Amino acid sequence: MEHPYGYIKDNKVFLKGFLGKPDREIGEVKEDEPSTIAYFEDRFAQIQEKVEKLKKDIEENQNKGSFLMKLIHLRDSLYESDALGDFVPMIEELNGLEEYLNEIIQANRAKNLEIKKGLIQEAEALKDDTDWKETAQAFKDLKMRWIKTGPVEKELEEEIENQFQEAVQHFFENRRHFFEGMALQAEENIKVYESLVVQAREAHDLPDAKMAFEISKKIQKEWKSAGKVPAEKRQPLWDEFSKLNNRIFSKYKRTLNPGPQMHPREVMKKVETLTEEIKKLAGKDTSPELIARAKEIQQEWRKLPPRKPKDANLLARSFQFFSDIVFEKAFLDKLVHGKYADFDQKSEMEQNQIKTALLRDLLHRDQTEYETAQNNSNNFQVRSSDFEIIMKKKLFGLKRKVDVKNYVLKQLSQK
Predict the structure, then answer these.
(1) What keyword terms does UniProt attach to this protein (predicted)?
(2) Could you tell me the maximum CA-CA distance found in the chain, to the nearest angstrom?
(3) Hey, how many other C-beta atoms are within 10 angstroms of the C-beta on 239?
């Protein structure tokens, strides 16, 4: 049976060759020849519908170039389609559409190239900007516009992409180096602030109020010129630093305005009385009333003239030592009650055991700190008179902390 575009031979269905292609078997007779021919004609009609739909999609869509590959695949499939009909006009029409789409794509790629060159110029203009926050946002906007811009000619694609990415990376590398440098500098600056706090502590403990005041003025100037650090790290250091310097200044002011003069004999009598009373408190168990009285005694001591008779030196050390014992015992009592809610319900023996164990741990820490400070002091190559005084004062303070804890341990062992 013959057909304008095929035929049936030996119960096989053939499509006549076209556009240089030979005749091709596309199927076989299933029931009868007319129904078989109608089946393959229907298949051709379905292919025509696909072509028409593609043409309509291209016509109605703004981004026409996106249909190029679909068109090519459809056209190439026509050469292998198992259907009966005139494929040549469809193929020629699709060839024309392909040329049309290629022209659009070429025009779009030329336009995309101009847009991307403009984006590269913008990136180049921004890449050395140091307004990190605003410029980083500008680069994010640029990258978004770059992504939304279509492709350029393939032979230019790598070159254009590299130019844009180099400008982007240049800015973000500069920003990274800047913040890394700031972080490192902040770490160094924190060390400076910490060192100044240590110097303020040491100056605060100096017996010579004038020398302490001079050191305070010097380190306050250094504080003002120290570099930036994050506020959350600087604030705690500043709180302690300013408190210490305020105390140094107050102490210095008292030396300038000592108040009513006391006869040395009166001073000695008062020193003896206050020392004896604080010593008695140091021998008792701690209580809120006892601590309140100890604070009152300290206030009375501060009212004494800064310059005391030489005979008062030993008593002054005793006063400080026993004052430390009173407050060390109060601290220990607070610590054990914090760790053991049922501390008051325990036997006296258990209470002493708990306090002893805890105090030994604190003593070990202070002993280690004292020995470390001693070693550090011995290892310093360059020394000055100020340094010697500060180190001696520091070592004396650490040694007193050790002695105080040993004294309290001895009291506990005698219970």
Answers:
(1) Coiled coil
(2) 146
(3) 11
Element at 6 (helix H, strand E): strand 6-9
CA atoms of 198 and 245, how far apart (whole Å)? 12
Residues with Cβ within 8 Å of residue 362, at least 6 apart in sequence: 332, 405
Residue 200 backbone phi and psi in degrees, to 5: -65, -40
> How many C-beta neighbours within 10 Å does residue 111 have?
13
What is the C-alpha end-to-end distance of the chain, expressed in Å? 126
Against a cut of 0.85, is the pTM above it? no
The pLDDT score that the predictor gives to residue 118 is 94
> What's the confidence (pLDDT) of residue 152?
85
What is the distance between the alpha carbons of residues 179 and 175, in angstroms, rounded to a whole number?
A: 6
Give me the pLDDT at residue 76, please.
94
Radius of gyration for the chain, computed over Cα atoms and rounded to the nearest angstrom: 47
- Report, as ranges of residue numbers, the positions in the chain whose pLDDT lies below 70: 257-261, 379-388
Residues 6+ apart with CB under 8 A from 149: 112, 115, 116, 119
How far is it, in rounded angstroms, from Cα 326 to Cα 284?
A: 9
Residue listed under structure tokens 């596309």: 26
Output the pLDDT for position 138. Answer: 93
The answer to whether 32 and 43 have CB atoms below 8 angstroms apart is no
Dist CA 279 CA 25 (whole Å)? 120
- Return the pLDDT at 325: 94
How many C-beta atoms lie closer than 10 Å to residue 126's C-beta? Answer: 19
Give the three-class secondary structure for 170.
Answer: helix
Q: Give the pLDDT score at 382.
A: 47
Within 10 Å of residue 398's Cβ, how many Cβ atoms? 18
Q: Which residues does 236 contact at the CB level (< 8 Å), separation at least 6?
A: none
Distance CA 108, CA 105 (A): 5
For the segment 261-312, what is each residue's pLDDT rounded down to a tens digit?
A: 677 888 889 999 999 999 999 999 999 999 999 999 999 998 888 777 888 8
Contact indicator for 358, 387 with CB cutoff of 8 Å: no
- Cβ–Cβ under 8 Å, residues 15 and 49: no
Residue type, 336: V
